[in-house]
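Aim 2, interim progress: modelling of the adenosine-5'-triphosphate-bound target.
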Amino acid sequence: ERIFVTVPELVNHVDKGLVWVRGRVHTSRAKGKQCFPILRQQSSTIQCILAVNDIISKQMVKFTGNIPKESIIDIQAKPVSVPNKIESCTEQTVELCVEQVFVISQAKSQLPLQIEDASRPLNPDDAGGLNIRVNQDTRLNNRVLDLRTPANQAIFRLEAGVCRLFRDILTENGFTEIHTPKIQLPDEGGEYFFTVNYFKETAYLAVSQYIHRQMAIAADFEKVFTVGAVFRAEDSHTHRHLIEFVGLDLEMTFKYHYHEVLHTISNTLTAIFKGLRDQYSREIEAVGQQYKVEPFKFLEKPLILQFTEGIAMLREAGIETGDDEDLSLPNEKLLGRLVKAKYDTDFYILDKFPLSARPFYTMPDPDNPKYSNSFDMFMRGEEISSGAQRIHDPEYLIERAKHDAVELTKLAAYIDAFRYGCSPHAGCSIGMERVVMFYLGLNNIRKTSMFPHDPKRLMP
Ligand code: ATP
Ligand code: MG
Ligand code: MG
Ligand code: MG
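Predicted structure of the complex, ligand included:
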């Protein structure tokens, strides 16, 4: 039986005899009667040496030198400390003197992309941010290979961390995770729906999940969250829109003011940022090796600005923008830069959006009905979340829907949910891929979706 050792464990086996190691052939270099494969396990690499001697034949060296890159091999070898750095291409202090090699799974000898090329740092002068050596389409067409790069290994481990932290922090704070239907009837925003054949009816893929979250609140679940797929048939040839993304969504009752919820959300995000900084420094560094970006800055106490304050800052910077429209993308980004310059943070919240820019179920501001009890959250100047207090009075909800010409006939069960008593509540939806993208300072959301789909790409 072969007892396997991982690359990081090898330091404990130096000069203690033979071990087995399984890994990929990262690169291989032959030189006369010797060959120097580098073995890779995820992001760890180890230098191996095969030299013709009593145990290793000439054929063996030749055979090993010809194993295609990315093949998976088992080797039996003696870990030794590196005598000098000359033959070593890695940071390791250990090398492996190989005695046996078995090919477990052989890769094609022609690879559509080279892991080394796909891992190379960006040229900082490359304004478009595309790695000229391996372009995005080649990467996405061969995503399984592309995902083997150290940066991609790190991105998706960190993304798992975002979900884990979101779950842990909310669970500790008394939230219940719920699962809402992804096949639904339409609500607002009809243009973004994908239709599904649902027996004799037409159904739709969830564009958002607020309906069932709110119904869970009406059912006395007080604090709930979901981690689930959201589908939008939008023209997503932008840097931050996917066809299918993961919503980290929450809904919560409050006693006096919807800011109780706003603070829960912003504190949860701040705790996630801290968790990433403290627990994922290796991943952050690995991504930084390939994509040089400024570290993400956030304040201990999240910055909350009024929408009108944001507009005033934009106007001061010479921008003409209306009081009752959503921020355009350029204005959103500019405001992010202005906020960063003034408050030194990459994370902030804009509160009290114009009512006309928000969906019908948003609670108007009781003090000024031109505005609403709703907010967006931004990272590096771009939206990562929208949230609001919801209307919990059924008659008022119907009135607001009529005003916005929203068809309610199919949503009777949603309206009814508020007819049997429902606590005041608020909630939000956070885009998982956007949080990872902007935390790491990446320029395209496709980099933080493992298998991103867009109007032209349904596979992989
Ligand atoms: P945007 O203004 O960028 O189009 P939105 O205001 O339409 O976003 P919301 O309906 O508020 O988005 O959805 C809540 C959150 O879901 C957003 O803040 C964002 O983080 C995320 N999100 C929305 N659309 C997409 C998408 N197409 N791909 C990835 N994430 C998205
Ligand atoms: Mg949108
Ligand atoms: Mg928006
Ligand atoms: Mg929004």
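Residues 376, 383, 386 surround magnesium ion (ligand 4) (CB under 6 Å). The chain has 13 helices and 18 strands.
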